[in-house]
Amino acid sequence: MEPSFRILRVHHIGLVPRDAEACQDFLNRLLGLGAHAPEVVESQRVTCTQVEAGETLLELLSPTSPDSPIAKFLTERKGGIHHIALEVDDIQLAVTQLRAQGVLFLSDAPGPGSHHTQVIFIHPKSTGGILIELVSL
Hints:
Layout: E1 7-16, H1 20-30, E2 39-41, E3 46-53, E4 56-63, H2 69-77, E5 80-88, H3 91-100, E6 111-112, E7 118-122, E8 132-136
Parallel strand pairs: 1-4, 5-8
Antiparallel strand pairs: 1-5, 2-3, 3-4, 6-7, 7-8
């Protein structure tokens, strides 16, 4: 079955640096990439700083709680690339169609993301081990 929703672009790449300040300094000062003000995303228990890299954003993620998924990622993996986010034209349709084909999600429905987006994460069991986030503006 051909999906009727569309992937519009790679929206962002989620990064979990061991040292968020050093990473942001490198991206800003040495690479000249502009950063947005940090935003706390309560639903994910993270602070998110978006850095513009052309058409794609880099999201620097820091845990706001020791029980957040990002805190667990830092403990287990010591940082690195966390996920890739794909912008879709219709997140509800994407979830419905993918779920009908057996795709597993980490939550029941899309929820609030940074900068007034709606997001949902696809379980790595469905993607060959990669955490993929769907984003709708």
